[in-house]
Design a protein that fits this description.
Layout (H helix, E strand, L loop, with lengths): L5 H6 L16 H13 L5 H6 L2 H17 L6 H18 L9 H16 L4 H9 L5 H38 L5 H7 L4 H4 L5 H31 L3
Length: about 230
């Protein structure tokens, strides 16, 4: 059950001490958690972590392709935004149902659907700026759009990382039984099996899963908030 690319590369090798929905919401909040769970699940590792991101990447590519090719037949960019919000929030909510033992057939389509929803309206802010702004203001407008999207992804990647870490630490500490929290965090998701006693491994994997679910709650919330921006677009 691979649930979040950039976050996983950091969290999977975290030291002992310290981004679907719409074009306004960073995909990194959920896309990075995918490979994190791919590493921590039974038999997971670096390869499993990378493969876990493929359905999301495929969904992102298809979503942007569909929006780009169909835009010549659709006169209202707000339709893409509304559809994107519905698909992204719904698929992010479905990701909350994952467990450490969820089958591949059950999670692949959810990840792909999440990526599809995230990218359907990725280019719509640029289309809006080209329609509304006069030519002399167009460079400034498109630059601001790009800056907001990039800064939003960077900001919420940090937020999701903080949410994940805070819940993971508290969940591991709640297990107790002389489990070394610092050693577990230092090992990261990839080397989890070697750092945790076999008897406690299911509990630690569930702790990871519980922490990841809170990251997806952030993704659901941001997807729903994006409805505010879509509502003001003609």
């Amino acid at each position: 059950m691979p649930p979040c690319l950039a976050l996983s590369s950091r969290c999977a090798r975290l030291p002992p001490a310290p981004y679907t929905r719409s074009s306004w919401v960073p995909p990194s909040t959920s896309s990075s958690t995918m490979s994190q769970c791919g590493s921590s699940r039974p038999g997971g590792g670096a390869l499993s972590s990378g493969l876990s991101s493929l359905p999301m990447i495929l969904g992102l590519s298809i979503g942007m392709l569909l929006a780009g090719q169909s835009s010549q037949y659709v006169n209202y960019v707000s339709r893409y935004m509304i559809i994107s919000i519905i698909v992204a929030s719904g698929s992010s909510g479905l990701l909350l149902t994952w467990t450490p033992h969820t089958s591949k057939a059950a999670w692949v389509w959810k990840i792909g659907l999440s990526g599809l929803g995230q990218r359907l309206d990725w280019q719509q802010p640029f289309s809006i700026s080209q329609i509304i702004l006069p030519k002399k203001d167009l460079p400034i407008g498109t630059t601001l759009m790009s800056g907001c999207k990039l800064s939003g992804g960077a900001m919420f990647l940090s937020v999701s990382s903080s949410v994940f870490l805070s819940h993971l630490v508290s969940n591991i500490q709640a297990i107790g039984r002389d489990l070394n929290t610092r050693a577990v965090l230092a090992a990261g998701a990839t080397n989890l099996a070697s750092a945790v006693p076999a008897a406690l491994l299911p509990d630690v994997q569930e702790a990871y899963n519980h922490a990841v679910r809170h990251v997806f709650i952030v993704s659901v919330a941001l997807s729903c908030l994006a409805a505010i921006t879509a509502a003001v677009v003609e």
